[in-house]
Every structure is written in structure tokens, then in C-alpha cells.
Amino acid sequence: MKLLQKLLAAAVLAMPVAAFAFPIAASGTEGLVVLAGNTGDIVATYQGNTASFSNDLYLYTDDGIAGNDVLIFNNHASPIGSTFNLGSFATGSELLFRLHVNNTGNDYFTGAATRNLDNNFHARVQENWMPGTTLVSFEDLLGGPFDYNDLSFSFTNTVTTAPADVPEPAMPLLFGLALAGLIGSRRRA
């Protein structure tokens, strides 16, 4: 009986361990930007990675001072679920994030592909991944494979479309009524 227990224990230990599942932003969200949804605090949460390279995530400050970006997470040193309060920003302000790959020295940014060395999108940005939460996932290799599993983090109080750019639902109707009135008045004249 003891031999059977030992064999069973050895078999269980030899079984492959399932990889930690973490969220990756949806396909089709490449190149979107992260914008402050309102003036409340924006809190980042580290969601996970499968990268072999060591990556640091920064909030890019664009203040002209080298090395002045704000370090948020490292994909190997930060525990999953770690949070970082970025503070508050003006509504609609873009928050630009930089992924620094420690092994290669390369930097990749959220937003436009032209911000990156290879002119490819290196981040997906999925608004409302969870209610009121934006998910961002990065690719850390020059030229891809673009599976965006190298560092994922989420934010509260962010959007991907500037609040001023979102049309009011009644605006097209009001515009249509005004146009119809203008056409009707021209016919009478």
C-alpha cells in the first residue's frame, strides 16, 4: 500500500503545472490611447505576464528631463494584484505608457505605431474590460510575435475616446431637425 501511495504522489508531482492565466486585451484594440476619464485618481493594477524578458512599465512624463518617467511595475518583481496610484489628471488627458525591456534596452509605447522602433503597435488598450476598468497589454519584442502577453495591467477611471469626442445622442436628431427646417423655409420663399 505504501508503494502505491509513493507512486501516486510521484505521478502527481510529475504532472505539468498549469500556467497562471491572466487577462490580455482584446484583438482590435491595438493603437488605442489611454485617457483620463475624469479628474479622480487613476489606479493601476498589475495583472500578470508570461515574458522571459524583464520589463519595466513607466508613465511617460514628456517633461524633457531624462529618467524622470514614473516607474509603475516590473513584470518579474511586482506581485500580481499590486496597485499604484498615479494621481489625478485633467479629463481627456492622454496618459502615455512606456515599456522598457531591460534585456534589450528597447522602449515601446501605447498609442500610435510610429512611436515604436519598428513602426508596429506594441500595446492593446481595451476600455471597459471590466466595468469602469481599462486593460492594457504589451508586446516586448521588436517585430513581434504580437501576442501582447509580456505585461498586462489595468486602470480605473480611464477611457479610450476623449469625453468631448463622444457625440450626445440627441445631437444628430437636432441637426436633422434644423436642416429640415432650413430646407422647409427655403421652399416657402
SSE topology sketch:
Elements: H1 2-14, E1 34-36, E2 42-48, E3 55-59, E4 70-74, E5 83-87, E6 94-95, E7 97-101, E8 107-109, E9 123-130, E10 133-138, E11 151-156, E12 158-159, H2 171-188
Antiparallel strand pairs: 1-6, 1-12, 2-5, 2-11, 3-4, 3-7, 7-8, 9-10, 10-11
Explain this structure.
The protein is α+β, with helices and mostly antiparallel strands. It has a single domain (19-165), classed as Calcium-mediated lectin (Jelly Rolls, Sandwich), CATH 2.60.120.400. Helix content is 16%, strand content 30%. The chain is built from 2 helices and 12 strands. The chain has helices spanning 2-14, 171-188, and strands at residues 34-36, 42-48, 55-59, 70-74, 83-87, 94-95, 97-101, 107-109, 123-130, 133-138, 151-156, 158-159. The strands form 3 sheets. The chain has a 5-stranded antiparallel β-sheet, with no helix packed on it. A 4-stranded antiparallel β-sheet has the order 4-3-7-8, with no helix packed on it. A hairpin with a 2-residue loop joins β9 and β10 (133-138). The radius of gyration is 23 Å and the shape is globular.
